[in-house]
Amino acid sequence: MKNTRNVSVNDISVAILEDDPIDQIKIEMMLTKHLSSQYKYRLGGIYSKLDDLITYLNDHKVDLILSDIMIDNKPIGLELLKIFKDTQLPVVLMTSSQDPKLFLESQKYLSVHYLIKPFHAITLQSTIEKTLEAHQKSKQYDFLDKKYLYLSSKAGHKDQVWFAEIMYIEADDSHCYIHTSAKKYVLKKSLSKLLEEDLNDQFIRIHHKYAVNRIHIQHSKADTVQLTEPIVLPVGKSFRKELKGFIKKHT
After folding, report:
1. Largest distance between two CA atoms of the chain
2. Residues with Cβ < 8 Å from 244, sequence gap 6 or more?
3. Cα–Cα distance measured from residue 204 to residue 96, given in angstroms and rounded to the nearest whole number
């Protein structure tokens, strides 16, 4: 007797932001190929303008956005990440550029994966699958693995600041200055306690006065670390060996 079993297939709605008509057709064809035993992809729409995509998303729910980084020769894909950063909507970025600055900028945001053009249908669908699974796992364990801080701004209200937004932290006695690309926050807590009690292992102390977020490290030397923007910070002698091992582990 033949053994059969029902396999549950998840219907996934994907919205696409892509301004190249040829790539639009290619990507649509790649998505409609039945390669996954777990997911069936449904096209929510293809848009060449960010405003049109946003208008669509105001009235429709999608499970993932697939976006080219460069639209009309501008890094519109990065702008998209900024707009949706608080929604945690999964995004897969595509680009034919191999500029490392674009990649580093995209890694500041959560639930983002990256594809270099040209790619095969198997590569596209497996990347989407990994993105969805990582997003689901993140949703399940966010209550255990907190990835943000609530910090007071000058206006007096609390901002939710994701770990990925924090570039570096500067100690000042019993206070810390937390630097993002957009703002600087003050927190009444020592750097040691902040690292131990509130932050995760993507942060490392490089000096008695500084700790940095590894996703913002662009270059490191024996005595300095260069972050995005660019910002150059000193590395204390007693922290150099640990920093070298930390960078090696995560590259």
Report:
1. 75
2. 220
3. 33
Residue 232 scores a pLDDT above 60: yes
Contact residues for 43 (Cβ-Cβ < 8 A; gap 6+): 13, 14, 16, 28, 31, 32
Euclidean distance between CA atoms 52 and 35, whole angstroms: 30
Helices marked H in 107-189 — which ranges?
A: 121-141
d(CA 154, CA 196): 26
Q: Fill in the amino acid letter for 81.
A: L
The position carrying tokens 């993140």 is 138
User: Tokens standing for 100?
Assistant: 């490392």
Q: Give residue 231's pLDDT band: very low, low, confident or very high (50, 70, 90).
A: very high
**Does the structure show a pLDDT above 90 at 173?**
no
Residue 125 identity: Q
Residue 48: the pLDDT is: 96
Neighbours of 39 (CB within 10 A): 20
The reply to whether the predicted model has a pTM over 0.70 is no
List the beta bridge partners of residue 67.
17, 93
Tell me the per-residue pLDDT of 174-206, one tens digit each, with 9 for 90 and over.
Answer: 899 999 988 899 999 999 999 998 888 899 999
Residue 212 φ/ψ, nearest 5 degrees: -125, 160
Confidence of residue 111 (pLDDT cuts 50, 70, 90): low
Please give the Cα distance from 130 to 138 (Å, whole number): 12
Terminal-to-terminal C-alpha distance of the chain: 51
Q: 102: how many CB neighbours lie within 10 A of its CB?
A: 18
For residue 215, give both structure tokens. 């996703």
Question: Mapping DSSP to helix (H, G, I), strand (E, B) and coil, where does residue 222 land?
Answer: coil
| Cβ(162)–Cβ(152) below 8 Å | no
